[in-house]
Design a protein that fits this description.
The protein is an alpha+beta fold. The chain is built from seven helices and five strands; from the N terminus they run H-H-H-H-H-E-E-E-E-E-H-H. Strand 3 and strand 4 form a beta hairpin. The relative contact order is 0.10.
Length: about 200
């Protein structure tokens, strides 16, 4: 029964992190179709009189714009422009960076150490945490989530000696946090050995 509960909880968390961005993308797509509906009105008048034809034309137009944006982003200058827009506009939207990083992490598209599960030494205890970034001086920015809500918590800047990376998937660490720490023995067992300098 315990394994079934763990499986259901872990699968639900992973599903939420996958479904939420898809849901938001669908909402944005529907909003874009609504806006384009007014623009294609004259063109849709030429087509057979049916609401489906008008909506289909809007959907095709939005998908064409998405394709065009993807093609432009695939070029070197387009990629640079997209990064500039992302850094100057999208990163200012609250939660965008977090959502982007988490979805990339869940999809396995990121090879960096962002959101790498770890155990951090806070006072005299080891606490579940995520490595967010490494500073120029070697210190680590660490996010220590609240329990059982892993998307709220505290930020610490710690020396690397106080941060112990874990050799576990991101979803497993999230599941342990969401389950009030149940399964922490697996986190402790998964601590990566420190390399000697």
């Amino acid at each position: 029964m315990k394994k079934l509960t763990e499986f259901i909880l872990k699968t639900t968390i992973v599903g939420l992190l996958i479904v939420a961005p898809v849901y938001l993308a669908v909402l944005l797509l529907l909003k874009a179709i609504g806006l384009v509906m007014e623009l294609v009105g004259p063109l849709a008048a030429v087509l057979p009189e049916s609401l489906v034809a008008k909506e289909l034309l809007c959907l095709l137009f939005v998908l064409f714009v998405c394709f065009l944006a993807g093609a432009i982003a695939g070029t070197e200058s387009g990629h640079r422009a997209l990064e500039k827009v992302e850094n100057n506009v999208f990163q200012r939207i609250p939660g965008y960076g977090l959502l982007r990083s988490l979805t990339q992490r869940m999809a396995g598209e990121t090879g960096d150490q962002t959101w790498k599960p770890a155990l951090a030494e806070i006072e005299d205890a080891l606490v579940p945490a995520f490595i967010i970034e490494e500073l120029d001086d070697g210190q680590l920015t660490v996010f220590v989530p609240s329990v059982p809500t892993p998307f709220a918590g505290a930020i610490y800047i710690l020396v690397p000696e106080r941060v112990h990376p874990l050799d576990i998937p991101f979803a497993q660490a999230m599941t342990t946090i969401a389950r009030w720490g149940s399964g922490s023995k697996k986190l402790v067992a998964a601590m990566e050995p420190k390399t000697l300098a």
